[in-house]
């Protein structure tokens, strides 16, 4: 298998390097290619298809809702499934994160969250407030639209659009494996990363900072990187101290991916705004949300103007809400969050076996959100030269073995992110984890033989 040109047809594909067969259909954790081969979807697309492919119950729900009512505009109408979906989400979210602003995906959720933060301070303090800056991090991903990309700290993805991006301040990620402070333990890195937030707020002036945005467990930019609890405890305190809203991006980590309902549940903190998408509907329909706590909601919608100056046509359409509600009910009823914790632990144990291959530098993650990072030299953590295309080689070799991984992005100080994300559907069984590991190991072994 080698890198080919994208298929020639009328689709404006995103990638010219094409290794994947055309997909005929999917069932459970498997994708079936038109090439007659069966592939384990070990990344659920991009941590999306969390209840697996081809779910019949969702298909029935879809059909029923289309027949009832597929579209109404949320600025004028409401439908029972929209309200029920918001109610179900608020049962899942921690603390008083109960107010759901529906959008159509993760980038839109980021846009809504940062605008919500800005409007909160305007409604609370008046239009002359100087609070508008949002602090985010390097080695992070919050979306591709220009506002969300301004939050995103992923150099390769930002590069050509840099002149179009807003100059929001960035601080280092809790990416312990390549932390810039020379910390030896994850706890030290977590503390340094939290202190960096306080320093940045003071540098910018707290009167100018509206919010801080972070993933609880990093997705594509440094897959699986996570802090210790102390990080979120400190960050929560710092945000409170300087009157800065805490936005947690649960687009990838939410709805059970990490083995908890939400990534922040590991750390016992409640953000002021949370963003979700992906696992909220598990890919059966495009939907996302920015979820506000009582203070933010009341300030804008009850005590304030009562008009959040933001919205998209498809945000809160009944069809997407019905499907998301159906999917969340399935996650809940089938105990898939608990299964993600259990199988995540089992997969993580098995993955330790990969350390016998010297190109494997680091394996980290929570639940079924796991990153594997490759290095030329494990001692020094020196990466391979870009021309070696390790990420591409691993991806191809794993695909040939019948397992699909998600090659990550990210880059720190010119060091490319040679890593991939493992994020199989949350309904994976122990036997399927065994099969996944065997195939993955063969792909990595082959890569190792090719490059060493
Ligand atoms: N935030 C995070 C953490 C993500 O992983 C993603 C998607 N990879 C987004 C935001 C953007 O979501 P979308 O692609 O649905 O716009």
From TrEMBL:
Q: Does the keyword Iron apply?
A: no
Q: Which GO terms describe its molecular function?
A: pyridoxal phosphate binding; transaminase activity
The record's keywords, sorted A to Z, are:
Aminotransferase, Pyridoxal phosphate, Transferase
Q: Which Pfam families match?
A: Aminotran_3
EC numbers, comma separated? 2.6.1.-
Q: Does the keyword Transferase apply?
A: yes
Q: Which InterPro entries match?
A: Aminotrans_3 (IPR005814), Aminotrans_3_PPA_site (IPR049704), PyrdxlP-dep_Trfase (IPR015424), PyrdxlP-dep_Trfase_major (IPR015421), PyrdxlP-dep_Trfase_small (IPR015422)
| Class of enzymatic activity (EC top level) | transferase
Q: Which cofactor does it need?
A: pyridoxal 5'-phosphate
Cite the Gene3D superfamilies for this sequence.
Answer: Aspartate Aminotransferase, domain 1 (3.90.1150.10), Type I PLP-dependent aspartate aminotransferase-like (Major domain) (3.40.640.10)
Q: Which residues form the signal peptide?
A: none
- Family per record: Belongs to the class-III pyridoxal-phosphate-dependent aminotransferase family.
Q: Which NCBIfam families match?
A: PRK07483.1
What protein name is recorded for this chain?
Putative aminotransferase
Species, as recorded: Thermovenabulum gondwanense
Species lineage:
Bacteria, Bacillati, Bacillota, Clostridia, Thermosediminibacterales
